[in-house]
Amino acid sequence: MADLPIINAGLRSTLIGVQKARQLIEISSKRLASGLRVSSPFENVGAYFDASALNSRAGRLLTIKDGITNGAIVTTGTVTAISEIISVVNLLKAAANTALGVSTTISSNTVTTASADVTDTISGAVDNDAFTITHDGTTTTITNTAGSTFTTIAAQINAVSDLTATVSDGNTIVITAVDGKDITIAESVNNLAADLGVASSTNGTFVSSATREVAETNFDDLLDQISTIIGGSTFLGTNLISSSPGSLKVQLADVSSSTITISGVSSSASSLGITAVDTAGSFGTNAGIASTQILLDAALVTLKQTKSSFETNDFILDSRSQFVQNLVDIMGEGATKLTGANLDEESATILALQTRHDLAVVQINSVFESEKSLVDLLKLN
Amino acid sequence: MYPKNLINHKTALNAYQRAQSSVMSPLQIEVMAFKRAASKMKQAAKNMKDFIGYAEALQFNQRLWTLIQAELSDQKCRVPEPVRTKILNLSLYVDTQTLDAIIQPSASHLSSLINIDLNLADGLFEGR
User: Fold this and answer.
1) Residue B37 pLDDT more than 80?
2) What's the pTM?
3) Is any Cβ of chain A less than 8 angstroms from the Cβ of B23?
4) Could A374 and B14 be called an inter-chain contact, meaning their C-beta atoms sit closer than 8 Å?
5) Shortest Cα distance from B80 to chain A (angstroms)?
6) In terms of CA atoms, which chain B residue is nearest residue A356?
7) Of A3, A286, B22, B66, which is least packed with CB atoms within 10 Å of its CB?
8) Would you give the DSSP letter of residue A246?
9) Which of A42-51, A182-191, B36-45, B111-120 has the lowest mean pLDDT?
10) In the Cβ-directed half-sphere of B18, how many Cα atoms lie within 13 Å?
11) Which domains does chain A show, CATH number per domain?
């Protein structure tokens, strides 16, 4: 401990930590030398440098910094990946919206009547019987006036925007909503709807729409990109967003109690509740598109929460001053009055210029006592 | 098939680097380390899409500065005051700036780190 004289109570308590850590690194070094795999925090540093050439101070500093830096790399990389997934989900929403905007024809939402001659008056109905059709928020009353026939009733329905009604001898009345939206039938005066044999319909199905099919294909292609992004989101061996997410333990100081664990959150398409649409033909109906949009909105909320939990990097910001203090403690007496952690960019630049000048004047042979660890670093990079 | 001695180029490279290090003066190795760190960060600044490359450049620089930190905070260190304290102050700036750079990746975070490394390399070179 000759290199760390006891000068005050703070340093004395630090010294106890130093001794503990030195024991640790010595054990680690022995294990490395004997080829045994070690799980101590020094393993990473030991793998990088020839442990025997690294003094304990360097080992401890490297261990703390590698822990925090690695934690920051993994969480920052993960945040970037989640941002990419959010972009993809927004594109998925755009694909769904594209499908929704398409004007197309549907064959269902069909209301049928009993077979009858189109010019017959309607059996069972008396004058002024009526029913209502509600479609797209508008309710229209269809009335059996004196002398009404199937043909004139159909004409009244045809007058409603986006609705068509067809009738032919021996067939049924077919009511079609060209926009695929619900048709709701309700009795108004007596039972005209029942006399006609019509009932509400909510299951509109598109016969075909090239644009919607393309939108479905685009949607599924985009959806695949989420798994591609997740596959590429392994940082330093840890993937925090895969379907079986890993977790990351970060050592904030060189006492084993000072650790935090960052748990992963699966952000795969299935975890987000987003499913493929092409095979299922989910964009066949406006209702199908709407339910996909609801799932996408929910997925965005989840992703933003996950992102924010990693993004804040709370563990680093909260422990930043402690981080610097840990470094200063390890550096020992010579570092107690250092202010470098509070330098801004401009002051650092000025200090670097002064240092350059000083170095040129003092003409030192080298900064390092031994170049061994420096050569180790350069060899591996 | 290639002769065995040609296949193992990695070993040959290491041997070459060992030889290179042994003929370089300690100061030359230190100048090279600072220049290597600066050049890695310059490359990273040009390709910000490669986050891992960016992080690796920062981590290399941080490891270099950690070795310096450990060396200069040793009582046996021969670097005289006040340059020793100045370099240690710069080392703490490197630590906090490195964390900031990783948390919020931006090429602008690298410029002061590159600048510091090049100034130290130049100072060491000029003082040889």
Assistant:
1) yes
2) 0.65
3) no
4) no
5) 8
6) B123
7) B22
8) -
9) A42-51
10) 6
11) 9-58+324-379 (no CATH), 70-100+209-315 (1.20.1330.10), 105-205 (2.60.40)
